Amino acid sequence: MRLEPPNGAGVTMGNWGTIVRNIEATKKFWIAMGGTPVNLGGLDVIKFHGALVLLIRGEPSGGSMGTVADHPGFQVPNGEEFLAKLKAAGVKTDPNPRNPAQGYVFSPDDLRVEILEDKSLTVPIVNHHIHFSLPASSIPEMQAWYAKLFGAQPGMRGTTPLANLPGVSLRFSTAPEAKLPTRGRALDSIGFEVKDLEAFCKKLEAMGVKFEKAYSRARYTGFASAELTDPWGTTIQLTEGLNGF
Questions:
Q1: Total domains, the chain
Q2: Where would you tag: which of 15, 41, 125, 140 has the fewest CB atoms within 10 A of its CB?
Q3: In what order do the strands lie in the sheet with 168-174?
Q4: 189-209: per-residue pLDDT in tens?
Q5: pTM > 0.70
Q6: Is residue 4 one of the residues assigned to a domain?
Q7: Residue 128 burial (CB count, 10 A)
């Protein structure tokens, strides 16, 4: 279980920041998904291939649906078998009636997670995508913003615009109106691991980016971090050092 090597901008997928009511119940959910629990300086974390899930104790104001970052997604070798296993374990599931190898599962705090199948996988589960939902007029600008700041590669999957980074595909779907910000919800933030984070933050500041939490090595034990919000309401945590765990 590891993060992918960074792109030319020094960026790779890092983490999902989640707010959870019950740490132990939520750990059981992620372990059933195939994650490995670890503790990083007092912070409960679940390790997956390609991303870490940070468990932050609190009272989320709602699930992930209804926010601009509607849901993240994983790939597994056998989607139908995986969904059936989780349903049998008591996890809330929403299978696709047209494709039993695809569907959604829900954490105890209603964080919606999509499951996709890739029979060629050689690992049990791997981080795959984050699905954004926003008005059609905003999608080209958001796609370009992630490309400019983080070196994401714009593309298309059928009719769905993408911006790809190592370890994650950012997907953009049309919504009739603007969605709520992620802060305070079950999926509170998305996170990128960055090489030479301090210099990277200075570069973003020179581009006019405002940070809610400035670069710091003291906020967490073992890794540096900074925090900003994209223009559409997605909280983004930047880290350096998570790839060592």
A1: 1
A2: 41
A3: 92-96, 99-106, 112-117, 69-76, 126-134, 168-174, 160-165, 153-157
A4: 999 999 999 999 999 999 999
A5: yes
A6: no
A7: 21
Cα-flanking dihedrals φ and ψ of residue 59, to 5°?
A: -120, 95
Instruction: Report the CATH number at residue 174.
Output: 3.10.180.10
Rounded distance between C-alpha atoms, residue 65 and residue 132, angstroms = 10
Other C-beta atoms within 10 Å of 203: how many?
Answer: 14
- Distance, C-alpha 144 to centroid of its chain: 19
- The residue range of the domain holding 64 is 11-244
5 found inside a domain: no
Is 84 inside any structural domain? yes
pLDDT at 243: 84
